Amino acid sequence: MSFPRAVLFLWTASLRNRVWRQLARLRRPRYLLGAVVGLVYLYSAVTRGLGVRGLGAMPGSARLFAELSLVGSALGTVFAAWMLGRDQPSLTFSETEVVQLFPAPVTRRALLHYKLVRGLLGAMVGALFATVFIGRVVSGTPVLFFLGASLALGTLYLHTTAASFTRTRLAARGGWGLAVRWGGVTLAVVAVALAVLGALRAHPFPEEVSSSRELRTWLQVLVASPGLDAVLWPGRLLVGPSLAGDVDGFLRALPPVLALAATHYGWVMLVEVPFEETAVVRAESRARERALRASGQRARTGTFTLRKPPFRLTARGRPEVALVWKNLVARKRMAGGVVTFMLFIVFGGAVAAMLGDARLFTDTREVVGPLAMTLAVMLTVVGPSAFRMDLRMDLPKLDLLRTLPLTGRQVVGAELLASALSLGGFQLALLSVALLMGPGEEAALLSDWWWPVSLSLVVLLPSLALAGLFVQNAAVVLFPAWVPADTGMRVRGLEAMGQRLLTLLGTLVVTLAGLVPATLAALLVGLPLYSVLGPWTVPPAALAAAGVLVGEVLLGVVALGRAFERLDVSEDRPE
Amino acid sequence: MDAVLEVEGLEKVYGDVKAVRGLSFAVAPGEVLGLVGPNGAGKTSTLRCLAGILPPSSGRIVVAGHDLRQQTVEAKRALAFLPDEPRFFEYLTVWEHLNFTARLYGVEDWEARGRALLEEMELTGKEKSLPGELSRGMKQKLSIACGFLHSPKLILLDEPLTGLDPIGIRRMKASLRRRAEEGAALVLSSHLLPLVEELCHRLLVIAGGRAVALGTLPEIRARLSGPEAEGASLEDLFIRITSAAAEPGTPSP
């Protein structure tokens, strides 16, 4: 059997076995239900996509945003290929591929073609997902978007491979090679910087922007300036077929991209370098990382910063404090929440700027107060998903948790507390900023409500976040087969997607149901007092609502503690 | 003397599979019980039930006078479980793991004990290392150091010598012997029969989840009739017992 036929057999047999295994899983009701929900979601996503208006009919700002995003992603990939990472081949093989294919009687070029075809198939899968989830937003012709995106992602894959081969060759030539590489990179960066500066000098940011249209017009003129247009041209060329509104446009945009892809293929063949050694090291490292993740030990040693613990842990006192201390140490050292939080702020600012809310740049003080308050409120919703130093982080180490001399209630309570303290701390910091900045003197009506509402939020938001955290932790304990903890190994498949959707829905329903008693308590306290206290009715009402929420969580911790003690994951992993 | 560990009718069922079937035994203070059996015999399931990780399907486990089901926390305070694959919190250093353990078990003199244990386990100088920076053997030693910190009355060990070098193995055996001499009860599961033969006072051989032999090596030898049983090594006995257990209709000891 020739190598291509052997590979074809490998892929078809693997796919067939995977499909059979997934079909066999559907005999269990939870997977069947998940598959049905997943199918319904996919069907609605695709059919909705077919009914969405095309890019040509989209608002100018959205079209510009879509095009710039795609071009930016493409250029960012090219930038990363030349600037980041090590000077070694970028091809990655799994450990099985290394063991099975490297000793096989095939040439290096055959292995390279195998990997390139896999990469291109991966690009097509990526394009398919992009079509299902964003294609309907940026293009009215999903088939053309899929074909264009496949071609663009495939070409970028070839570029990344060729760039890594070229870098390896240049690095092998020592100082001269490095000088050539960095000289070329520097020239490109300087050219881009000059183009951007030139464009900004010709079209400076308007001093006063009163509407999003003005901002959009400025951006359109800016990117159309000759220098910047030249910088963006390769990216625009690449995404042209994806964004084509009709078949004619697609066919017109296709030839240059096909030529680009063919050139890149030739480039890869021309600069091919030995990649086996790097591939073996990388495969071993990935296998090690996967094994660590599967065992509940995330292989993130390199990313930890050994910051000091938040407080000194003495040997005396309540033992569950050790868990709180441990999770706060994790919070400080893993810093995932902070990074997410900062990304959240940067993304929010970028969206505000794209939508033309130029007040951010002109009336900073007036904007920062309400913005901080908005962020604190939004953290109540997104925070419980971002701050995960709790059972979601520790449940993969259930064996370890179960040996600790703590009751289930103690474990659940302590695990919940670290995330709640961190999230509440962020919210209180944001609310402090909001209170100090104030709404601005001209907003007289807002001024009356500013302090009462802000003070109410000080007690209400952390309680709501606590309730959100509790629901998410409860889902992991009560439905371990449905809500996988953070093992880093996501379960894939249609049924897994359906299960996640159902879990999300369930989480929302439980959260809303939990809010009903709190709302009633707030109304019971607030309504009689309003005629006397006016806006200052809000703090006692909020206090009542927060009290009910905290009470609900305390009761929930007791119940969840019992569930934790009974939690038996052994059926999924017999000896 | 009261047993540190008493097990009565322990059963563990995974769906349709009965992994452990009616195990009953006791371990006295200072005694080392070897748990041996072929792959899939139910050793790890048994140890996990004894450690409170898996809830038993039925049966009773009493650790240092505390029923593991009724007085879970008190029972767990008295035991240490050292798995074959040590688990750590990857963001805590070696020293912080000891600190964490000390708070959980209320070990007030933990710093002195911790230093002595790190010295004993040849981990001195690694206090600020994260688990990810330790070798396989070092992780095993850290697991043992954390397990010994609170001077447990019952120590459960699953393949304790995995990953250790010859010097580490020798030190570990000496360390285990010392804990037994100090009064701790040890249950040791291992496929290394020479280790079991060297360290254990009694053996519990299980196959198919059932106890097929329980007693000292001479007692087990005596149970087996035939001239070939006399002077047979543990390996020979193990093969004879487990092969016999695989045949249908074999009675329990």
Provide an overview of this structure:
The complex is a heterodimer of chains A (about 575) and B (about 250). Chain A is mostly helical and about 575 residues long. Chain A has two domains: about 50-290, no CATH class; about 300-570, no CATH class. Chain A is built from 21 helices and no strands. In chain A, α6 (about 140-170) crosses α7 and α6 (about 140-170) packs parallel to α10. Chain A is globular. The two termini of chain A are about 40 Å apart. Chain B is of the alpha/beta class and about 250 residues long. Chain B has two domains: about 5-80 and about 155-245, P-loop containing nucleotide triphosphate hydrolases (Rossmann fold), CATH 3.40.50; about 95-150, no CATH class. Chain B has helices at about 45-50, 70-75, 95-105, 110-120, 135-150, 165-180, 195-200, 215-225, 235-245, and strands spanning about 5-15, 15-25, 30-35, 60-65, 65, 80, 155-160, 185-190, 200-205, 210-215. In chain B, the strands form two sheets. In chain B, strands 6-7-8-3-9-10 form a six-stranded mixed sheet, with helices on both faces. In chain B, α3 (about 95-105) runs parallel beside α5. Residues about 250-253 of chain B have low confidence and may be disordered. Classes of the chains: A mainly alpha (about 575), B alpha/beta (about 250). The interface of A and B includes residues 299, 399 and 571 of A.
